[in-house]
Amino acid sequence: MLRAEGLRHSFGGGAVRALDDISFTVRPGQTLAVFGPNGAGKTTLLKVLAGLIQPQRGRAEVAGGRRAIGWIGHQPQLYAPLTVRENLRFWASLYDVRPPTDLLTRLGLEEHLDRPVRALSRGLVQRVAIARALLHDPTVLLLDEPFTGLDRVAAEALSQLLAQHAGAGRAAVLVTHNVEEGTGLATDVAFMRAGRFVHFAPRAGRGAAQVSEDYRNAIA
Amino acid sequence: MRLPELVRHSWTVAAKDLLVEFRSRTAILSAAVFVVLVLVVFNFGRDPTAVSNVDLAPSILWVTFTFAAILALNRAFQLELENQALDGLLLAPIDRSSIYLGKLIANLVFVASVELIGVPLLALFFNVRVLPYVGPLLGVIALATVGFVAVGTLFSAMTVRTRVAELLLPVLLLPFMIPPLSWAVLATGRLLAGRPLSEILGWLNMLAVYDIVFVALALLLFPATVNE
Fold first, then answer.
1. For B197-206, which contacts have Cβ atoms below 8 Å and span 24 or more sequence positions?
2. Hey, what's the torsion of the CAs at B61, B63, B64, B65, to 10 degrees?
3. Which of A13, A31, B127, B144 has the most CB atoms less than 10 A away?
4. How far apart are CA A17 and CA A20, in angstroms?
C-alpha cells in the first residue's frame, strides 16, 4: 500500500541531512507512528511519501497515487476568507466528489458551514482540515502532528475516525514528537533521529509509558 | 489528463481565487487606487505644450498597467502559502498545468478589471479619443496582457517561496515584459493617432506569437517550478 526504499534527502547543499537511507513498507490495516524530536526529518519524510518533495535518492510509492492520499498537517490547507462550505466544496470538486454529510456531522461542523474559516477557533479550523483531508475517502492517511490545536472532543473524534480508517483495512503514517498522543493508534512504531530510523518494530501491545521509555533510550 | 478535466479544474482554481479576492478585496482595491492615482498625477504633472497628449498617453497607460499587474501577480501564489494550501493543491489528483491555467485566468480577470478602469480615465484626463478605436485598442491590450501575465504567473510561482518574493518578481519579470510592452506602446500610439489598422498588424502578430510561445513554455515549466 505504501513503500519507501532507500530515501535520502538533504537541504542546504547537503548541510542538513533530513532523510538518511529510510526504507519501510506499510500494509493495509497498519498504522505506523513515527516519533522524533524537532528537526529529525519527520515532516520531510511525509512530504516525500506524498510526492511533495522529490527525494535525492530512493523512491516512495503509494498504491493509487495522489488520489489515494489524505493529508492532515499542522497547517489546515484552507482559505481563510472563504466559508467552511466553500472550502470543502472547492477541495471536493478537485477530487470529483461531494463533501460527505455524515463526516461533517461527526466532526460537529454542520452548524458552522456558512462561517468564514477566519472566524473559527483553532480547534474548529483543525476539524475542517480533517474533513478536507477525508472527504475523498483516502486509503492512505499521512498525518503530521494531527492533534495540534485540537480540543478534547475533536481529538476523540479524530482518534475514532483514524481507528475506523485502520479497521477498514487502510494505512496511515503518523508523525509526531508527542509519544502519548500517537501510541494508542499505532500498530507499528518507529523512532527517528537525524534523518534515520533508529527503531522500527510492531507496537506489540506496548502502552504509551513503555513506548516513551523505549523512545528515550533510543533517542538519548 | 483529458482536456475537459483540465478546463474544469482550471476554472475551479480560477473561480476560487476570484471568490477569495471578492471576499477580501485587498489587491483589487489597491491596484485600482494605484491606477487612478498614477493617471491623476501624470495628468497634473505633464506639460501639454511640450509633448502632445497622443504621444504621451500610450506610455503612461502601459506603465500604469505594468505596475498594477505586478501588484496582482505578487498575490497570486501568496494566498496559497497561507495555511499551506499550495501543498493541498499539489496533492490533489489534478494536472499541475490546471493550477497554472487557473491562476492565469484569475490574474487575467484581475488585470483586465484594472485596465477597464484605466482606459476611460486615460481618455478623460488626457483628452484622447478612444471610442473610434475601442475594438483594436482592446485587442492590443488583451494580447499584451495575456503575454506578460502568462510570464508573471510563472515567475510568481517560482519566487513565492523565497524570502524576497515581492522584490524578486519585478526584477525577473520586467526584462521579459519589455518586448510585449514596447509593441503594445507602439501599437497604442498608432491607434490613438488615427493611423490605419494595417500599420499595427505586425505588432499584433508579434504579440500573438509572444503569447503562444510563453503560455506554452509556462505550461511546460510550471510543474517543475512548484516542486520543493
1. B197/B136, B200/B136, B200/B140, B203/B140, B204/B139, B204/B140, B204/B143, B206/B179
2. 80
3. B144
4. 7
Note whether B92 contacts A116, CB cutoff 8 Å. Answer: no
Rg (CA), chain B: 18
Domain region containing B217: 3-225
Instruction: Give the containing element (helix H, strand E) for A34.
Output: strand A31-35
Q: Which cell numbers in the block locate residue A123? A: 480547534
* Residue A199 grid coordinates: 527503531
What ipTM, to 2 d.p.? 0.90
pLDDT at A94 over 80: yes
Query: Domain boundaries in chain A?
Result: 2-219
Chain A contact for B224 (CB, 8 A cutoff): no
| Mean pLDDT computed over A86-106 | 93
Which pLDDT tens digit goes with each residue over B32-79? 899 999 999 988 887 777 888 888 899 999 999 998 898 888 888 888
Contact B4/A at CB under 8 A: no
For chain A, say whether B94 makes contact (Cβ under 8 Å): yes
B20 touches chain A (CB under 8 A): yes
C-alpha cell recorded at residue B98:
490546471
DSSP A116: B
For A56, which residue in chain B has the nearest alpha carbon? B228
Q: Environment class of residue B2 by beta-carbon count within 10 Å: exposed (0-12), middle (13-18) or buried (19+)?
A: exposed
**Reported pTM:** 0.90
Measured between CA atoms, the residue of chain A closest to residue B13 is A90
Q: Which CATH architecture has domain A2-219?
A: 3-Layer(aba) Sandwich (3.40)
Q: Residue B1's pLDDT band (boundaries 50, 70, 90)?
A: low
pLDDT at B16 over 90: yes
Percent of chain A exceeding pLDDT 90 equals 65
